[in-house]
Amino acid sequence: MSARKLLWTQLKGKTRDEKLPYILELAQELVEVAQNLEMDESDYSSLYLLKKVISDRHEQAKDRVISVVDPEARTGRKSDKRTIQGYKDHVMIDEESELITAVKVTPANAEDGDQLMDLVSQFQENHGSFPSQVSADKGYWFGKNLRYLHKNQIIGHISVAKTKQQTQGLFAPEDFDFDAENMSVTCPQGKSTYRYRNKMKNGKQVGYDFWYTKTQCTGCPNFELLLYMATHLSWYRQRPHRVIVLSFLT
Questions:
Q1: How far, in Å, CA of 127 to CA of 107, rounded?
Q2: Which residue, 174, 171, 172, 152, is CA-closest to 222?
Q3: How does pLDDT run across 56-105, given as a tens digit for each residue?
Q4: Which long-range contacts (C-beta less than 8 Å, at least 24 apart) are formed by 26-35?
Q5: What CA–CA distance (Å, rounded) separates 62 from 80?
Q6: Which end of the chain is more exposed for a tag (fewer CB within 10 A), N or C?
Q7: Which of 36-45, 192-201, 204-213 reaches the highest mean pLDDT?
Q8: Could you report the per-residue pLDDT of 27-65, keeping only the tens digit for each?
Q9: What is residue 94's DSSP assignment?
Q10: Is the pLDDT at 239 greater than 50, yes or no?
Q11: β-pairing verdict for 83-93 and 74-77
Q12: d(CA 146, CA 198)
């Protein structure tokens, strides 16, 4: 009996849920055999897709493949109750003429805000200059986009998204004044610090770490709040002899 007929005989009459464990076990065996044969494992090869489909069965799996025929398609969310399948387009439009000036298509689970820099760069490539200003909703309000717009002298009309710190009555990074020219940071109480070091990641500088000493913070009405933040927020940290370390990205 051929392997195909044997498989059909073993699965005949079983429900989908009853078939699935058997098929996944067989698929895992195929992956192991294929790896021993040094088969192609580049993106979207048959072996890659088989391994991805197997791993996607895990409850905590993210970025799940929804179609082996169209392996780049994904499931995205428009709201807590509404999902979309496949892809979504990100469009940049001239306000006066309503002509499309840049467009990008991504899998449906891609974040809208992550596409702003690519759209603006595409605009620059198409027209030879950057737009003087852009408008967007609060999904685009985060540091990477704001720094990019500032660097390229683009005015950003973007709805401000409340941070978790603001909704909890805590300080946010924008409550501290970072002076890049004089390399200083000033806190909400008006005290400045010039103590800093380069912030490194994977061997590259990504920003600066500034810190205040205990002497500077003695008697500050926000002292207890800042100590709480130093233990709960990633951009605040405590170090010996330093009350607060604040990270600012370039």
A1: 26
A2: 171
A3: 777 777 888 888 788 888 888 877 788 888 999 999 999 999 999 999 99
A4: 27/53, 27/54, 28/54
A5: 16
A6: N
A7: 192-201
A8: 777 767 666 666 565 655 777 777 777 777 777 778 888
A9: -
A10: no
A11: antiparallel
A12: 21
Per-residue pLDDT tens for 113-169?
999 999 999 999 999 999 999 999 988 988 789 889 999 999 999 987 766 666 666
- The distance of Cα 95 from the centroid of its chain, to the nearest Å, equals 28
State which H helix or E strand residue 150 sits in. Answer: helix 143-151
- Residue 156 corresponds to which amino acid? G
- Classify burial at 72, counting beta carbons within 10 Å of its beta carbon; exposed 0-12, middle 13-18, buried 19 or more: middle
Could you list the beta-strand ranges (E) of 39-82.
74-77
Question: Which of 170, 145, 169, 164 minimizes the C-alpha distance to 156?
Answer: 145
Tell me, what's the pLDDT at 37? 64
- Measure the CA–CA gap between 178 and 186, rounded to whole angstroms: 7
